[in-house]
Amino acid sequence: MLRGFYTAASGMLAQQRKTETLANNLANVNTPGFKTDQTSLRAFPEMLLQQMEERPFPSQNGKAAASYTSIGALNTGVYLQETMPLFRQGDLKETTLNTDVALLDINLPINPDTGQAGSVFFTVMNANGETRYTRNGNFTLDSEGYLTTGSGLYVLDQQGNRVQLSSDEFTISEDGYITGKNGETARLGVGYSDDPMAMVKEGDGLFRADGELADAYTAANVSFKMQQGFLEQSNVDSAQTMTEMMTAYRAFEANQKVLQAYDTSLQKTVNEVGRIG
How many folded domains does the chain comprise? Predict the structure, then answer.
């Protein structure tokens, strides 16, 4: 019976964590470039139960031999194995702001090992001087004219240098070249990952890669373009996410009722079984 407690509790914990992930997706439905997280549930290994007993066999000293009778398999619970971002292209929304830019995927090769398409990202620098990657092109200019993200991280060019402009009157071509009002030029840095699932999601729309990503401009068979004055919206499907949240909530309730049934049975066992009338 106690094993049943643990099995039902593991189901409740798994559904709670799934609900938290879905709630985070809904909270970021309007965050530019946000990639929805998908959850993967997995059952613990099953246990094969057997009954062991002794069966006597003819002998002078009356010894008995061990005998095993198969009872069946017992599942020992479930857990949330991992969360994985979905790198599907989000819709583009026009903002008419010069500092907003969106990446539009055109052709991204399928990785033969994973069966998934690669992905391209803007390159930025965090506060520790480390390269990070994002799909959020909601940029701005700081007081020194550097192009930064909404959270203040520097946007990098193709050579890994910070992009500095004299004013917000600049143009960005479809192939990433920036031309400023006073003639300054740069090319936005874009990294390409052939296995984006291997990247680590850090929050605030940032991803960390194991080493530097390849230059997307020179990567084989990779094609994309940039749209100035547009932002890529999150790829969260709010209707589907709400449906999944209701399903997770119902599963949580079902496990909760099982737990309550076990608790009632234990209470009867403790308080009534063996009572002397």
Answer: 2
